[in-house]
Amino acid sequence: MSVLRWWWGLLLAFAMLALLRVVLPLPFANELILFSIYAMGCNFLLGRVGFISFGQPAYLAVGAYGTAFYLFYFGNNPYLGILCGIAAGIIVSLAVGPLFVRLRRDYFALVNLALAVIVYYLMQKVLAGITFGDNGLWFLTSIAATPVLDLSRPDQFFIFALVVAFAVWAFYKYIDDSIFGACCLATKLNEDKIIFLGYSNFSIRLTAFVIANTTTALAGAMYAVYLGFVSPEITSAARTPEPVVVTILGGVGTLYGPIVGSLVYIGMKDLISKVFGNWELIIGFGLVLIMLAGEKGIWGTLEPLLQRAFSRTATSAAITGVGGKTK
Amino acid sequence: MIDDQLLISGILFGLSLGSIFFLMAVGLSLVFGLMRVISLDQLLYYSLGGYVTYSVSVVTGNFWLGALAGMAAGAVAGFAAERLVYLRIYERDISFTMITSFGILIGGVGVIKYFWGLVPLPVSAPVDVQINVIGTAIPVYRLIIVGLSGLVYGGIWMFLNRTIVGKAMRAAIENVEHVEGLGINVYRLFAIAFTIAGGLSGLAGGLYAPLIMVDPQMGLDVLAFVFMIVIIGGLGSIKGTLVSSFLVGQVVSLGTLVYAPLAQMAPFAIMLLILLIKPTGLYGSPLLKR
Questions:
Q1: Residue A83, CA distances (Å) to A68, A87, A238, A280, B272 in order
Q2: Cross-strand pairs, B133
Q3: Contact (CB, 8 A) for B98 and B36
Q4: Do A292 and B102 touch (CB under 8 A)?
Q5: Is B87's Cβ below 8 Å from some Cβ in A?
Q6: How is residue A102 annotated by DSSP?
Q7: Do B220 and A46 touch (CB under 8 A)?
Q8: How far is CA B214 from the centre of its chain?
Q9: Rounded CA separation A135/A129 (Å)
């Protein structure tokens, strides 16, 4: 029953996302899906493990550059490129993770912020010989057309991105229901108690850190394939808090939060910069107002209301659904 | 090896950079120590200070008046942000205050863009004189910056150790509940700390403006360095901030002479090393908890 119900919710959410494709212009829909994948990693880190990271763009850039290096220098298959990006994300987060997850939460946020800036300088100056500094790597033309889903075409990329986002979402839902998910939540709530239960805070946090940042790297890899170029701008200091903003805007720890947050944030940014020009002003003070209004975020506020409104209809629908199957 | 002239000017450059970093980081460190708020909006007061300095010095023709106005603008903005926004969200989790401060930061950058435009603006240096030290020409203005930040450190030290408000503030950094229990209005302390932090950030922006150009993103450029300094020194420690800001200033400046691209990253390596040995930073107390 309950399994059926959340699958329904999942399908409904992504059916609505697919519908957005019809209503909204394609670049916007693509951007939205990619950003929600990006925010999902941050949502897991913040909502489940309780780590606020201001350095998510660092991992985004790692994924993006992993893909970019492959596509620029070695091959031309976008799928392999994305795999390279994911591998890069795993390697980097395994390298920095053991050091970072030992830190207190406030230090963790700042250390990640510093990491993002370091990646920026690394890509802009130190490795300028292979990354071409601020000009970035352009490889849109070298992405080969693949047989089933041609990732070099934006409309087919959208389908791929939707499938990936769905898979990531279902994966996080699965983690939430597993023992590991419960452990993550427990390290957030009471780290002394979980030691007495025989678990190690360090290994739980490290695993969660690697999972979350690999998701971020995946988002970066897909950005790279979608845009066809990567520049250090992707991890500049101005962009560092974006995923956290989106996560909190949508509602921390909720499953639909990243999607709702991305929709609102990207939508507002797009709309305001078209109509008004000065998006920072409105986004900034809007954010302050939202933070003052409450800490549950948009989805966190909407969810109980929706549940109350739909609880009767939803249960009856589920019952008839099950009944219909047994017949 | 580097020749002497380059070395001397490099050290001086590092000192003045460290002074600017110190002025910014000390407010950040104080605000964090007292209220557990990671106040990204200090970077806004830094840009605001720079811009107000520009406008006032263009109108009046006096740079020092401009820097003073920049400091005042930063202090007023900090005070306003504390009263209007932070006062309502102290109880919340650290991530919420951080996001709120980010909202103030980008909102304020939007305001700056609205009033002053996107083009970087030059501020003319008040003192163009160069003096000769062991055969090296040294701009006096950089020396003045170092001197002023020394004065600020002295002032902060006197304030925290010799006045009753400062003593209460130090006690509140250790344990805010006890201070509240003694009948001291901690929210007034918070407002004072925020005003001081904003004022110092504004002063830093004003003093640094002649050496760079003021542009709307100037706060974001120093963001990472300032936060690295606060981490290296230990959150909430004034002395640690002083030591680490001059450390980072020298590393950036002298590193540029050795191998420029790596200089920007060297502070990060130092930070990782220090966190590996001492996860709370150089002078951070492990007992600090809230």
A1: 11, 6, 28, 35, 29
A2: B136
A3: no
A4: no
A5: no
A6: T
A7: no
A8: 16
A9: 11
The two three-digit tokens of residue A200, written as one number: 């190690």
Which of A302, A209, A202, A194 has the alpha carbon at shortest distance from A250? A302
Question: Which token pair is B126?
Answer: 């008040």
pLDDT computed for residue A325 by the predictor: 37
Question: How far does CA B280 lie from the centroid of its chain?
Answer: 20
For the record, the structure tokens of A20 come out as 């957005």
If one counts every other C-beta atom within 10 angstroms of the C-beta of residue A250, the result is 28
Please say if the pLDDT value at position B107 is more than 50.
Answer: yes
Best of A265, A273, A280, A285 to disrupt the B interface (most B CBs within 10 Å) is A280
Q: Vertex B72, ends B67 and B78: CA angle to 5°?
A: 125
Helix, strand and coil percent figures for chain A, each rounded to 5: 80, 0, 15
Residue spans of the domains in chain B: they are 15-119+131-277
B186 vs A276: which has the higher pLDDT? B186
> Which residue from B76, B107, B118, B110 is spatially nearest to B214, judged by alpha carbons?
B118
Please report the residues numbered 92 through 151 in chain B whose beta carbons come closer than 8 angstroms to any beta carbon of chain A. Answer: 92-96, 98-100, 102-111, 113-114
What does pLDDT average to over chain A? 78
- Report helix, strand or coil for A138: strand
Q: Does B230 touch chain A (CB under 8 A)?
A: yes
Beta bridge partners of A181: none
Distances (CA, A) of B227 to A117, A201, B233, B281: 11, 27, 10, 12
Assigned token pair, B82: 């504390």
Chain A CB contacts of B85 below 8 Å: 288, 292
Q: Both tokens of residue A282?
A: 């409105």
Tell me the C-alpha distance between A254 and B34, whole Å: 31
DSSP single-letter state for residue A235: G
Angle between the A257-275 and A26-47 helix axes, to the nearest 10 degrees? Answer: 130
Would you list the DSSP string of B89-109? Answer: HTTS-HHHHHHHHHHHHHHHH
What are the percentages of helix, strand and coil residues in chain B, rounded to 5? 75, 5, 20
- Of how many residues is chain B composed? 290
Please say if the pLDDT value at position A1 is more than 50: no
Contact B126, B58 (CB under 8 A): no
In eight-state DSSP terms, residue B82 is I
Domains of chain A plus CATH, in order, are 2-326 (1.10.3470)
Which is more confidently placed, B60 or A319?
Answer: B60
Amino acid letter, residue A128: A
Determine the distance in angstroms separating the CA of A14 from the nearest CA of chain B, rounded to an integer. 28
- Taking CB atoms and an 8 Å limit, are A114 and B92 in contact across chains? no
pTM equals 0.80
Contact A222, A34 (CB under 8 A): yes
Distance, CA of A48 to chain centre? 14
Q: How far apart are CA B230 and CA B232, in angstroms?
A: 6
Which residue of B91, B95, B276 is the best one to mutate when testing the A interface, meaning the one whose CB has the most A CBs within 10 A? B95
Residue A103's contacts (CB-CB under 8 Å, 6 or more residues apart) are A111, B275, B279
